[in-house]
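Late entry, written up from scratch paper. The run itself happened at the end of the previous shift, but nothing got recorded in the book at the time, so transcribing now.
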Amino acid sequence: MSGSCCGSSAAASELQQEWQWTERYATQPEILRYLDHVVDRFDLRRDIQLRTRVTAALFDEGADRWALGTGQGESVSARFLVLATGCLSVAKTPDIEGIERFQGERHHTSRWPQEGVDFTGKRVGVLGTGSTGVPYRKRCEEIAAQHCEGFALSRAG
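Output as recorded:
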């Protein structure tokens, strides 16, 4: 896994040289350490506001800034707006008929328990073959003593 940087800027190149990944398919703890490193390296913590719902975003061309409204009633002005939406903010659970009758454990990679999950001796099924599913399945195969099977989901459409 190469990290969350892309492009060819000098900062991105320097950052990639600074960070050494300890494994090819990084797990959540290492990804979190990397994100903390990036935030600290570029002094971003003061400019990030977590757990805040943006309710309005209007770009003011004259001021070349974003005017934002939050769920807490705040008005915020920003030069840049990074929409960090998707798998890290909203879990996309597949609609599978009969899933409510499943008696075993179910976990979603975006809502992974802080204390981890012990797959030792368990039969594990992994839905998905994307950027999270592939390394997740590899890790399950290393830990689960019995079986770890991957399933690709096809979207009718």
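The longest strand covers residues 54-60.
(Scratch paper discarded after transcription.)
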